[in-house]
Amino acid sequence: MASTTRLILNDLHAHGRLNHQQWLTLLAEAQSAPAFAEEIRTCAHAIRERYFGRAVYIRGLIEISNYCRNDCYYCGIRKSNGEVSRYRLSPNEILQCCRQGHDLGFRTFVLQGGEDAWFNDDRLARLVAAIRAEFPDSAITLSLGERSRESYERLFAAGANRYLLRHEAVNPDLYASLHPPRQRLANRLDCLRNLQAIGYQAGAGFMVGAPGQTLAHIAEDMVFLGDFRPAMVGIGPFIPQHATSYAHEPAGSVDLTLILLSLIRIMLPNVLLPATTALGTMDPQGHAKGMRAGANVVMPNLSPADVRGKYLLYDNKMSFGSEAAEGLDTLRQHMAEAGYKVVVARGDQPPLEN
Ligand code: SF4
């Protein structure tokens, strides 16, 4: 078994993709054999060092609105959660967050929000253009859900560079179990293809340990990532939210998340790979462990402090301390202790080496 899995790992390293059965075999062995998981991690870290050295790219996360027209069953701010106190930042407040972030050393701003109709194409394009004009040295990442191709094109033309849209699950049954019928997997995948075709650095991803998810589902997601070749991948452990029907489901595994981070680094050597807030929420050492597994990005929260408690996608979500822009010194210190260096840089995806 061990030699078979090592051959599969070599195959992944050499070709950057595997078939479903190979993924299943590899994942099962990595989960059951700690020595093999460590071998995977070591390989991933060597690739991380080749492409990024010990650098940690930081992104200033601005949660612009917690209004959302969607009803993803796992999400704390979904439309039908009446407990949520809704807010929306004004364009001026968002620009102010960027100014504060730029002063702190951020050179990427991530505008994230629910699918809020107030942020129509006119308003968003004006906002993106204003950020682009004021911060020509910074990247603008959007994470605002499913929009039309025309909308993505306008925002790209206005100055946006990257777009995060987790695919969540490529298995149609799993996707359908996590979302209401009007939210269609085919549309989500079309959005991702459009983003990539327009020229965005496009980011996909999924929750590890989502309710109903099996290792076979994860293997399907890894096949998809190998085919799609995203510039960014966001994965983090599922964390239940008390006002959802998944309130009593177990959280996803930190260990499996770390194994997957390593395997994604091996599959997509130059990918931008965050150690997510969910990982930091589940494990106080989550960021450092993520870096050791092959991650190279952290996204501290730049939102105004008074709204952070309202963007609760899941329970106990961290948005202060080393997860916050004002806690950057703490993050720098934690990263330095682990042997990494937070850098002031746009942190674009480097070209793939031959
Ligand atoms: S996951 Fe995103 S799209 Fe789904 S309900 Fe939550 S904010 Fe809306």
Describe this structure in words.
The structure is a single chain. With 354 residues, this protein is α/β, with parallel strands linked by helices. The chain is built from 14 helices and 9 strands. The chain is globular and about 60 Å long. Iron/sulfur cluster binds next to loops. Iron/sulfur cluster (SF4) is lined by residues 68, 70, 72, 75, 77-78, 114-115, 145.
What is the level 1 CATH name?
A: Alpha Beta
Number of domains: 1
The CATH superfamily bears the name Aldolase class I
Q: How many helices does DSSP assign?
A: 14
Please tell me the overall pLDDT.
Answer: 95
Low-pLDDT residue spans: none
Biggest β-sheet strands, sense, barrel: 6 strands, parallel
Radius of gyration from the alpha-carbon trace, in angstroms: 19 Å
- The CATH architecture assignment turns out to be Alpha-Beta Barrel
Please write the string of helix (H) and strand (E) elements. HHHEEHEHEHEHHEHEHHHEHHE
Quick summary:
The chain has 354 residues and is an alpha/beta fold.
Chart the SSEs and their pairings.
Layout: H1 2-15, H2 20-32, H3 34-52, E1 55-58, E2 60-65, H4 91-104, E3 108-113, H5 121-134, E4 139-143, H6 149-158, E5 162-164, H7 172-178, H8 185-198, E6 201-208, H9 215-228, E7 232-237, H10 254-267, H11 277-282, H12 286-293, E8 297-298, H13 305-308, H14 328-337, E9 341-343
Parallel strand pairs: 1-8, 1-9, 2-3, 3-4, 4-5, 5-6, 6-7
Helix pairs in contact: 1-2, 2-3, 2-9, 3-10, 5-6, 6-8, 10-12
Summary keywords:
alpha/beta, six-stranded parallel sheet, binds iron/sulfur cluster, 354 residues, three-stranded parallel sheet, TIM Barrel
